[in-house]
């Protein structure tokens, strides 16, 4: 299959896990009605972004994977014949939790999970309090419509993560994400932060000759202190923006992705072919100094 229709669901969330799940299902159905074959939901879509505080009660939001949410979404995937990329708070064992994305194929089957590798610890993003770094490595999933690579939010800043996932055979890189502006910031800072976020992900397209789909949440949270900036987007294999969402509206959009273009781009801009892999061993060091 040389082309695939990708559904992107950018939505706001409430404090009700069940309401958010039901809303996401409605949005998935909207995307499918528009022709979507693969639908990507935003990071931790069943809840508000709870990592703004260190609160032990928030661990109650976690669930097993597979579990209740994947069971519900699996039935939807099978009914609609779509692939669903679902970012969830995983309870792996007593006291062991991950930020995890589950992949459900178009027949409803559970293909597996990816656990977020890079975990931030910034003001209002206290994820290391909740999440153990992923231990499954980087992953691709062979779905009915494409082989997809899935990374999660903070992973988006790391070219090593996108490169490895691309080298594993991904046709498309997906990034469920949750990122926003502090509402007391000035507009210039806001613009600089968003542009950096978009630029680094577009660069993954260029460096790897792959489409990138990044799906972010929208709306005010944290008692109005945080505006999640939306701005979800999709690129082609050369980093060209195919679709760009607004910063303040819920959107369910379907984008045509041409998978065959990757071959054309990689032949004409042969960055993968020309890599000097024998020179890259130093990348495994924390810092290259005299020690």
From TrEMBL:
Keywords linked to the UniProt accession: Hydrolase
UniProt xrefs under InterPro entries: Aliph_Amidase/BUP (IPR050345), C-N_Hydrolase (IPR003010), C-N_Hydrolase_sf (IPR036526)
Q: Name one GO molecular function term.
A: hydrolase activity
**Annotated ranges, domain CN hydrolase:** 4-259
Top-rank lineage group of the source organism: Bacteria
Q: Which SUPFAM superfamilies match?
A: Carbon-nitrogen hydrolase
Write the protein's name. Answer: Carbon-nitrogen hydrolase
State the species of origin.
Answer: Pedobacter flavus
């Amino acid at each position: 299959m040389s082309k695939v229709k990708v559904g992107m669901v950018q939505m706001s969330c409430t404090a009700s896990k069940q309401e958010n799940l039901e809303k996401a299902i409605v949005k998935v159905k909207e995307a499918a009605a528009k022709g979507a074959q693969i639908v990507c939901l935003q990071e931790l879509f069943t809840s508000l972004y709870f990592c703004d505080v260190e609160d032990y009660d928030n661990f109650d939001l976690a669930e097993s994977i597979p579990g209740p949410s994947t069971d519900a979404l699996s039935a939807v995937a099978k009914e609609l014949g779509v692939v669903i990329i679902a970012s969830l708070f995983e309870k792996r064992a007593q006291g062991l939790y991950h930020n995890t994305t589950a992949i459900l194929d178009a027949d409803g089957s559970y293909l597996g999970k990816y656990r977020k590798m890079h975990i931030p610890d910034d003001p209002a993003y206290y994820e290391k309090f909740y999440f153990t770094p992923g231990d499954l490595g980087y992953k691709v999933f062979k779905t009915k419509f494409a082989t997809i690579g899935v990374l999660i939010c903070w992973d988006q800043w790391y070219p090593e993560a996108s490169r490895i996932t691309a080298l594993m055979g991904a046709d498309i890189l997906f990034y469920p994400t949750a990122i926003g502006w502090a509402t007391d910031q000035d507009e210039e800072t806001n613009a600089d932060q968003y542009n950096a976020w978009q630029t680094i992900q577009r660069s993954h397209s260029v460096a790897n000759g792959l489409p990138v789909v990044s799906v972010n949440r929208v709306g005010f949270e944290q008692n109005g202190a945080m505006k999640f900036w939306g701005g979800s987007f999709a690129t082609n294999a050369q980093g060209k923006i195919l679709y760009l969402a607004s910063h303040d509206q819920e959107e369910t959009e379907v984008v045509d992705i041409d998978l065959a273009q990757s071959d054309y781009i990689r032949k004409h801009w042969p960055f993968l072919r020309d890599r000097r892999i024998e020179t890259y061993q130093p990348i495994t060091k924390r810092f290259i100094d005299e020690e």
